[in-house]
């Protein structure tokens, strides 16, 4: 039996190692989980594989705080990997979800919330004229690829090393995120025929792009890119890189798919496009969205030019479908979340992110620890190395062992970081002074722990 949790319970004392490294209730749950689930988790990075130790099982979350099965409280810098931009269990989203659920869980027919959510997305990202709702970011990128191939009648896809687009077969080559963490070069189970239609190029490398198109330009259906990479840590496109992608794809009749699953409605109100666009060279033909637009529920989308989207069934021949697509509860959560994504919200998120990043930079500098912080709008990540990070090779040249010690130093002090140095640190509008000050107070001790070699 899980005891009832108290989301407003006592906070750990700031700055002190409040919690021991063993977490008995989480360890017991993990043992049960391992028996019935591979590795005990339903998404690999959650297993703490690269930092070691017991993943904390959470029983509740409110605002900026998580509470685990042992009743320990942590400031959350994962935010469910991005979606919880308003903070956990935000009252407006909770009310919308409760009301929607009371009216029924899934209709298998069109419903009005789907239209409202699509309208909200179309209104925020100018080149997006139409969207189709799906249930995960993976489904969005998979469907966008199929559509691009159907539209162009070509089959080759270009992706960039270190960019993660979900676990789509064709895109599981040199992907970041969990694959970076576990250093899997490729996944078994992806047939060579599928990966063979994928060209992997270095990110931010225009000559490599031009060379690939000079050789195979008439076979390339699409280039897919993270609008600003966030799954190898934050690596924004160099000035002019997105424009080069537009220029080269246009010249060869290929489509450009901008994956904004992470950056969409997160980097800014209009995602990365809202910060960097519009472009004189044109606009990406297709976009993918997820994370924030689902408000913590399974909702994602792909969309773009109406003439391309017209190739989708039932209007066109490219098949795509989903039993739970546009689910009324998920769309209610997404809609309430996007409506809460006001200019003031982005100000609050940006201010909290800046304060935490500045604190990290100060604590690391004071201890003489090499580090580099990179930004995409309100999003940032911390590299455990010096110097600019422009691509996947740069990102991989980090001190991952030091990160593991730092991670556990923060965890002991009641701060839950993403458990890998290749991940973005996420904050929310609920990261108020109390939460930010708690993170800042934890930093010096965690840096000290990082510099102390393990004693066993
Ligand atoms: C998270 C992510 C995905 C995959 O989304 P899921 O909902 O986990 O399938 C795709 N692309 C990017 C850029 C992402 O960050």
TrEMBL record:
<dbReference type="Pfam" id="PF00202">
    <property type="entry name" value="Aminotran_3"/>
</dbReference>
<protein>
    <recommendedName>
        <fullName>Glutamate-1-semialdehyde 2,1-aminomutase</fullName>
        <ecNumber>5.4.3.8</ecNumber>
    </recommendedName>
</protein>
<dbReference type="GO" id="GO:0006782">
    <property type="term" value="P:protoporphyrinogen IX biosynthetic process"/>
</dbReference>
<dbReference type="InterPro" id="IPR004639">
    <property type="entry name" value="4pyrrol_synth_GluAld_NH2Trfase"/>
</dbReference>
<feature type="compositionally biased region" description="Pro residues">
    <location>
        <begin position="1"/>
        <end position="10"/>
    </location>
</feature>
<keyword id="KW-0627">Porphyrin biosynthesis</keyword>
<dbReference type="GO" id="GO:0005737">
    <property type="term" value="C:cytoplasm"/>
</dbReference>
<feature type="modified residue" description="N6-(pyridoxal phosphate)lysine">
    <location>
        <position position="291"/>
    </location>
</feature>
<dbReference type="InterPro" id="IPR015424">
    <property type="entry name" value="PyrdxlP-dep_Trfase"/>
</dbReference>
<keyword id="KW-0413">Isomerase</keyword>
<dbReference type="InterPro" id="IPR005814">
    <property type="entry name" value="Aminotrans_3"/>
</dbReference>
<comment type="similarity">
    <text>Belongs to the class-III pyridoxal-phosphate-dependent aminotransferase family. HemL subfamily.</text>
</comment>
<keyword id="KW-0963">Cytoplasm</keyword>
<dbReference type="GO" id="GO:0030170">
    <property type="term" value="F:pyridoxal phosphate binding"/>
</dbReference>
<comment type="pathway">
    <text>Porphyrin-containing compound metabolism; protoporphyrin-IX biosynthesis; 5-aminolevulinate from L-glutamyl-tRNA(Glu): step 2/2.</text>
</comment>
<dbReference type="GO" id="GO:0008483">
    <property type="term" value="F:transaminase activity"/>
</dbReference>
<dbReference type="InterPro" id="IPR015422">
    <property type="entry name" value="PyrdxlP-dep_Trfase_small"/>
</dbReference>
<dbReference type="InterPro" id="IPR049704">
    <property type="entry name" value="Aminotrans_3_PPA_site"/>
</dbReference>
<keyword id="KW-0663">Pyridoxal phosphate</keyword>
<comment type="subunit">
    <text>Homodimer.</text>
</comment>
<dbReference type="GO" id="GO:0042286">
    <property type="term" value="F:glutamate-1-semialdehyde 2,1-aminomutase activity"/>
</dbReference>
<feature type="region of interest" description="Disordered">
    <location>
        <begin position="1"/>
        <end position="25"/>
    </location>
</feature>
<dbReference type="InterPro" id="IPR015421">
    <property type="entry name" value="PyrdxlP-dep_Trfase_major"/>
</dbReference>
């Amino acid at each position: 039996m899980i005891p009832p949790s108290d989301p407003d319970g006592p906070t750990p004392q700031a700055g002190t190692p409040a919690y021991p490294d063993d977490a008995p209730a989480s360890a017991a749950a993990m043992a049960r989980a391992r028996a019935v689930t591979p590795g005990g988790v339903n998404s690999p990075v959650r297993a703490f594989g690269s930092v070691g130790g017991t993943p904390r099982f959470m029983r509740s979350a409110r605002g900026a705080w998580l509470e685990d099965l042992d009743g320990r409280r942590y400031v959350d810098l994962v935010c469910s990997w991005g979606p919880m931009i308003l903070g956990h269990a935000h009252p407006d989203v909770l009310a919308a979800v409760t009301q929607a659920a009371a009216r029924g869980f899934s209709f298998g027919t069109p419903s009005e919330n789907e239209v409202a959510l699509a309208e909200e997305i179309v209104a925020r990202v100018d080149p997006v004229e139409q969207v189709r709702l799906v249930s995960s970011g993976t489904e969005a990128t998979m469907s966008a690829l199929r559509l691009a191939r159907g539209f162009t009648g070509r089959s080759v896809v270009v992706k960039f090393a270190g960019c993660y687009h979900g676990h789509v077969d064709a895109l599981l080559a040199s992907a970041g995120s969990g694959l970076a963490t576990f250093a899997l070069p490729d996944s078994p189970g992806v047939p060579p025929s599928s990966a063979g239609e994928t060209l992997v190029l270095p990110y931010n490398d225009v000559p490599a792009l031009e060379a690939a198109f000079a050789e195979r330009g008439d076979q390339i259906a699409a280039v897919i890119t993270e609008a600003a990479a966030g799954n190898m840590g934050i690596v924004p496109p160099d000035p002019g890189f997105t424009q080069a992608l537009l220029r080269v794809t246009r010249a060869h009749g290929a489509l450009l798919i901008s994956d904004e699953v992470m950056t969409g409605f997160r980097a800014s109100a209009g995602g990365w496009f809202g910060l960097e666009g519009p472009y004189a060279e044109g606009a990406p033909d297709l976009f993918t969205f997820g994370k924030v637009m689902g408000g913590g529920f399974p909702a994602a989308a792909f969309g773009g030019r109406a003439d391309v989207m017209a190739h989708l069934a039932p209007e066109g021949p490219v098949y795509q479908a989903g039993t739970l697509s546009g689910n009324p509860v998920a769309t209610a959560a997404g809609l309430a979340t996007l409506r809460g994504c006001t200019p003031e919200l982005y100000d609050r998120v940006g201010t909290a992110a800046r304060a935490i990043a500045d604190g990290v930079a100060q604590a690391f500098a004071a201890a003489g620890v090499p580090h580099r912080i990179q930004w995409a709008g309100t999003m940032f990540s911390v590299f455990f190395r010096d110097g600019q990070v422009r691509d996947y090779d740069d990102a991989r040249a980090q001190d991952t062992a030091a990160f593991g010690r730092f991670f556990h130093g923060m965890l002991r002090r009641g701060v839950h970081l993403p458990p890998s140095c290749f991940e973005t640190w996420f904050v929310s509008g609920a990261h108020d002074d109390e939460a930010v000050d708690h993170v800042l107070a934890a930093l010096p001790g965690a840096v000290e722990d990082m510099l102390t070699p393990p004693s066993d």
